[in-house]
Amino acid sequence: TGTAGGAGTCVAIQDGLGLGITCKHVINRATGRVNVKFPLESQYRPAVFIGSSPHADLAAVLFIADDQKTWHVPVAAREPPRGAPVYQVGYPMGRGPIGRSGFFIGAGGHLSNGMRSYNLSFDVISGDSGSGYFYNRELVGVVWGGGGRAATVGHSDLQAFVEVCLKRPLLPWRRKIENRLPPKAPKQPQDQPPPKSPYYPPP
Q: Cα–Cα distance between 59 and 16 in angstroms, integer?
């Protein structure tokens, strides 16, 4: 009970913490703790929700990460041009990761909450919410819905939200994450080899 799933993208690693971006409605569906898992990992990592955008369907989580081992993708400096080839990776119906490719169509109008939506040439289904779509190996937006064409949060809202998150002090959140980690097993004393007999050269 209280379990919800979705996708997300790690966009930065700072102070040993990974910043993951997903959709606000993905986080809002969950009533329990937040966990993240990368495609090649078998275990979930405990995470903490640190905030959401006031005017876009975006949310941020933090988890313990390592620069050398955690895959992350930077946010692009600008929006892709119309017709640009893009690809998306998600977990439709909880399966995946599954990738799709198509083209960036552009702005699809404003929603009732004021958020500007952007469309892609392919559709998505339940489980893809929160997944990123990419252009030139950089993150340019986040999928929030479907219905014929993927509806997404655009680059400008994404970039502004990530910048706000990275300006916040992140280290205070580390203790909350560490409190959820399983206790480390105490180190077992290792058998010490018997001391070597002193060597005396022959007379």
A: 20
Q: Which two tokens stand for residue 187?
A: 């180190």
* 75, 166 Cβ separation under 8 angstroms: no
* Rounded distance between C-alpha atoms, residue 111 and residue 193, angstroms: 72
Give Cα 29 to chain centroid, integer Å.
17
Q: Which two tokens stand for residue 88?
A: 């998306």
- d(Cα 35, Cα 5) in Å, to the nearest integer? 10
> Within 13 Å of residue 124, how many CA atoms lie on the same side as its CB?
35
Taking the C-alpha atoms of residue 95 and residue 10, their distance in angstroms, rounded to an integer, is 19
Decide the pairing of beta strands 138-145 and 132-135: antiparallel
* Identity at 64, one-letter amino acid code: I
Between β-strands 116-120 and 151-153, what pairing exists: parallel, antiparallel or unpaired?
Answer: antiparallel
Q: Would you place residue 43 in the very low, low, confident or very high pLDDT band (cuts 50, 70, 90)? A: confident
H-helix segments, 82-154: none
Structure-token pair, residue 154 = 């655009």
DSSP H helical ranges for the chain: 24-29, 155-167, 171-178
Contact 89, 10 (CB under 8 A): no
DSSP code at position 75? B
Per-residue model confidence as pLDDT tens digits over 109-143: 666 566 788 889 988 887 788 999 999 999 999 99
Closest CA to 146 of 126, 176, 116: 126
